[in-house]
Amino acid sequence: MSFVKSGTVLFLASMAGNFCNYLFQFFMSRSLELTDYGALNAALSVTSILGIPAGTIMLVVARYSSTFNAKGEAGMVGRLYRNSLLFTSGMGLALCALLAVASGAAASYLKLGSSAPIIIVGAGLALSFAMTVNMGMLQGLQRFWHLSAAIGFGAAAKLALGVLFALFGLGLNGAVAATALPGLFVIALTIFPLAGYLKNDRGAKGVTLDIAAYSVPVLVSALAFTAMTNLDMITVKHWASPEDAGLYSAVSVLGKTILYLPAAFVLALFPMISDSHARKGDIYRVLDRALLITVGFSAAGVLALAFFPELAISMLFGMKFAAAAPLLKYYGMAMVSMAIVSVLMTFNLARGNTGFIYSLIAGTIALAVFFHIFEGSLLSTVLVMVAVNTAVASYNLYAVMRERKAWEIVRLDARSRSAM
């Protein structure tokens, strides 16, 4: 499939998934107390940060399965799949055990009344590690129909479990469990189209060192990117009152719509760039389309939040969250920059370029420092994000455009020589 067609398929699945996710947030904002709702989203931020290794594995699996598939090395794809499942299962269980031990300290930092939500988060992370291997395989092999089904089904399962657990009166623990358990269903759904690869490793040779070397920059970049998009929620939950943390969590959830709207096209971008790079094709044409779509969707989202902030937040969360409406347009602006960064990060990782990582690390450090300096104000927190995220996005866009200009000069020179 073409980039636009593939992206459209994933976009429709993502929209269905996002609809379920926002129905989940809609339901939880009304069934939970304001303080518990803030605690839920703080726990989800912890999940995002501690789940970074799983996201790293997904990108690594996607890149190498795409590269091996482009070269016709089916045996290498099979070995990659089997070894990745074994490795991630062990890593997930180890992380689950570690989080259980540290659950008391984590709960204390986040001002949770119990360590149970942290323990449930650990169980969910163990499932997500195995799940992301399957998702990465589907992405790398460009089986976007199966990947789309997994995205939609996972979100629908979270919504259904959330409603069920709320009806049983499980409160905050039930809400967190509803976000953890869908991984089990997604694993069952995605293993069927990939089962044939588990038995096929004919002609496979070891590439462990290459994969390990590539995994390090992916891990660091994923860590920095996730920190830049979740550090604010954890910081606010630490210093703000439970009520203010609850209000801010609504802004964070709704504002991140800007980041998630074009995410489906980023999923399609990675294997296509990786495949094109392996074949020495024109990788910048796909990048142009990805950036155009990302900016278009993001700008539309920011305009909606800027002109209808109270309507947007009250429809989704209820009037008790309306006081946070003025923050929405600024949060949306911060997420536009991160949406652009996500495209450029994916583009660079797909072609093995890692120089951009330093800018993400610098951005993470800057956010942590300025969040501390301006601690005590929700507006200041959001404005810090706008400034830092814009700077990081601008730098990375400039760096890629500079590389593109050099590439075009080399290509024109090669054409002129071949014409002589």
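Above is the first protein from milestone M3; the second protein from the same milestone is given next.
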Amino acid sequence: MSAPAASPFSLDHPAAYAAWRERKLADAPRALDELTVEVDDPRRLSAGEKAALLECIRRANMAIYASGCGSEADKQIPRQLGLQLGLSSLDGHFLTDDDGISPLSVSNTEDTETGGMRREFIPYTNQAIRWHTDGYYNPPQRTVRGMLLHCVESAESGGDNHLLDHEIAYLLLRDENPEFIRALSQPDAMLIPARVEEDGEARPAQPGPVFSVDAQGFLHMRYTARSKSIVWKDDALTQAAVACLASILKDGTPWTFQGRLEAGMGLVCNNVLHDRSAFSDSPARRRLLYRARYYERISG
């Protein structure tokens, strides 16, 4: 039996990291067009369409698709697309619909329990959302590794996204100071406090690392740039690492992408870093995206 390969994400294996880093930067796209794939119907990918999406995801952990679906409001689009990419275990929670897929739009509904609660959470408003990975508040057994966004209708104005491959963020931090990686890999580096409602605790406190490596050797990132409802470990190295990461995200990188999903377009990714600008709807155009979050990574 051959020995297992040294992980490039281990600080104990600088040679493995150097080899991985060289490959990563050689492959990494620098323009959103390099990650955009034209597909006819995401529910039924051709072999060529699927291969093109998977190649983009191999290079950057994400792909953008532009389809002929237009403003068709069909949740089978993200569901069937996900299944073709090995995504099946949806992360349902109290704000998703019963099918585990969230309709992201400005919630003006008060006549249902879920509609009323959605109004309290930023993804269901037109406010800007800071840099984050999805499900950063989840417990380890519900780690969100894959994500799919499908646009039914874009806003009248705004609603753009910035995107950054979390492996590039790791690379830039490690190049700056390998000890930043050690600090952000601590099991208590980032704490999401308990959320307490009037009737008691709705979600327990959730500590965890920013960077971790899963059983298959893939890098996972858990992060939010929000300043409320988050506690960073109070030591100098962790604080310096958090500040460095915030600077990378604020200043931008050659591998940071910006764009807006239009009707029929979507994002498929291994839970990369992303944000969202504020937006404005109009009577004629009301922003609606379907979001599906999964416990698997995209496979193939």
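Note on the second protein: The first strand starts at residue 36 and ends at 39.
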